Automatic annotation (TrEMBL):
Pathway: Cofactor biosynthesis; (R)-pantothenate biosynthesis; (R)-pantothenate from (R)-pantoate and beta-alanine: step 1/1. The keyword DNA damage does not apply. It comes from Comamonas odontotermitis. Keywords: ATP-binding, Cytoplasm, Ligase, Nucleotide-binding, Pantothenate biosynthesis. The gene is panC. Homodimer. The reaction proceeds by a bi uni uni bi ping pong mechanism. This is Pantothenate synthetase. (R)-pantoate binds at Q57, Q154.
Amino acid sequence: MQITRTIAELRAALDQRGRPAFVPTMGNLHDGHLSLVRTARARGDISVASIFVNRLQFLPHEDFDSYPRTWKADCAKLEAAGCDVLFAPREQALYPEPQVFKVVPDPLIANILEGEFRPGFFTGVCTVVMKLFSCVFATTGGGVAVFGKKDYQQLAVIRRMVQQFALPIQIIGVDTARAHDGLALSSRNGYLSVQERQKAVELSNALQELACETCINQRPLAELEAAAIEALRDKGWMPDYLTVRMRENLLPPQEGMREVPLVAIGAARLGNTRLIDCLEF
Ligand code: PAF
């Protein structure tokens, strides 16, 4: 695996090597990331991963400084997964001056759910992803980019961005990798205490239950969602949202329209750790 630190090094490494398939990450890699890399290997001529903890997508009180940086382990995992090129720019290489031009996504999809609880988050994500796309694809004439479905809204926002800017990039969403008990793999799982780790699967269980109720229970969705939130709160969580949305645009389905492709999506805090998860149904 070739490690590149600057945009020029990355572009030189990709020169004449066909269509890249790209996996952007913030490091602290787990099996979920590695399944994205395996997908990338199957979908492009050359697989590229990036590791960059993007300051722009963290609010001042969030965990930018403490976000786990596990460089050696990450390199070993990427190497073992068969990644061809790693792009790991230092902050100065990606943001040599304050990034004053930003990509502001459509508020209809970006200011709901995560965007409501983490204002500006998707502007930070879109800005860095657009810049990373420019680093990887500007000289290759396009390619493929691979994202996990766990960050369901992020995937939807990026699909919209690529569509609206007519970027020559095919976006692929990969199913969430889960631990043996069903907990969605996440870099933030490492923040959980032993007791919290045992309880953590309750979020995905709550989403399964909500999806199930949506299919069989004719009560209004708002009531089913409120009951799901209450039940999780009773178990000691602090839920931000648990809701059923249309997969297509993440808006609530109209009552009587439960036959369309749906996703149950949720975010909740357990102790000091905020987890998100989702379930398509
Ligand atoms: O999902 C992530 O890890 C990040 O949001 C991403 C896409 C790498 C942008 O920083």
